[in-house]
Amino acid sequence: MEAVRSERSMEKLPPLQGQVTQRTRLQVWFIRVCSTILIWTCLVQLVAVVELWHPRLLNGFSGFTKMSVYGKESLPSWPPPILLPARNYTSNGFLKVSCNGGLNQMRSAICDMVTIARLLNLTLVVPELDKTSFWADPSNFEDIFDVRHFIDSLRDEVRIIKRLPKRFGLRYGYQPLEMAPTSWSNEQYYLKQILPLFDKHKVVHFNRTDSRLANNGIPLELQRLRCRVNFHALKFTPEIEVLGNKLIRIIRQKGPYLALHLRYEMDMLAFSGCTHGCTEHEADELKRLRYAFPWWREKEIVSEEKRSHGLCPLTPEETALILQAWGFENETQIYIASGEIYGHERRLAPLRAAFPRILKKEMLLDPEDLQQFQNHSSQMAALDFMVSVASDVFVPTYDGNMARVVEGHRRYLGYKKTFQLDRRRLVELLDLHQNGTLSWDKFSAAVRLAHERRMGQPTIRRVIADKPKEEDYFYANPEECLCKGTTCGNLSSHSNTTKVL
């Protein structure tokens, strides 16, 4: 009874309006915040479960972004692209291709194969990537490139399918014609010699694709299609794009940087027979490796003779001297875009002594970031490709496929500074300086003079009749795609600034 009286007496007391109202509002606000957090937590967990079972279900829904496997970076969620109308044509047959070589050799080959399929009105099967080369990378096309974007972005030019119709499968006893087209062929070769093969076979399988389309003498619309595939249709997968952009962001936070494609890896040295600076044991090891691969086997290679002709990649020691001669300062950030350097840290020591701010992807990213890409050399190379294209300066020590394709991308992006080494001249200057004949000042001046017109400026692609291997590579300088109209005018009159980082 006393308790009842107390409660009734309290009901008669006037409320402490200010205190009670403020406290009540805070309580209500706190409850709402907690409820909101709980609801969003449940939704995120629900999305994770749904994505686990149906990863495509939420694609295109702008309220969510699909989380990457890394956990720290999320893949952007873009609205579905507006597709161009598909080109309506009667297909003359199916073109199946197996690319050979490393990432960038395969990349340029894919561009050529799309162009050939368009020329001959064929249906192209998504290309197969090389799994039998030195690198033994098991990656498929869709592991490196965004296959849906590739198909959709070219639908107005050529029909692309993921696999052959079942009736053309080996299971049904169908044997496609297997062949390697003649290297450096123009469109007349494909129209007159390759197209008739489809009347009989319906499916033709190109089992080699490197350099199967000429650099020059190709109709303008076909040259520009090659560029369209290269610069727009061949996008890396979202996982590679996210990690590559993260890598670029980490480097840029510390300032401008130079990307050095230091082509001093074991496979490069074994293939080329270049052993300058190696120990006798290392030279023997490289020779044994070369003879272990039948397609690398050559006559006896004299390393120093080959080097004197500019046919060897610069060593890390030589590269350090050349960068110093160009005027790059000790504090320059240098990103090493390559695989494992032969000789490891011992061979990198002179370069690191000259430029302490040496960076590699393995140093900048967490191990879990790179875990998915381990033992997938082409996916690793894609990260280096992205960092190289985005760099302030790009310096390749050898003019292989990556060097040339990156150079072409940098031209397309506004002639970004790319040093094209005159290795024959550099070897002469290096030897003269190192034997005391040429002072540092004269050596540095000669190095700069030799490269005034070799920094990625606008220029006409060099054509050499009957020597396609010696002329300038289309993908290093796709001039038809870099200027308006049908001609590029006097490109060589333009110049690039010689200022370094």
From TrEMBL:
Its main location: membrane. GO terms for biological process: fucose metabolic process. Pathway: Glycan metabolism. It comes from the Eukaryota. The chain crosses the membrane at residues 29-53. Keywords: Carbohydrate metabolism, Fucose metabolism, Glycoprotein, Glycosyltransferase, Membrane, Signal-anchor, Transferase, Transmembrane, Transmembrane helix. Coiled coil: none annotated. Pfam families: O-FucT (PF10250). GO terms for cellular component: chloroplast; membrane. It is a single-pass type II membrane protein. GO terms for molecular function: glycosyltransferase activity. It is found in: Membrane. Belongs to the glycosyltransferase GT106 family. This is O-fucosyltransferase family protein. It comes from Handroanthus impetiginosus.
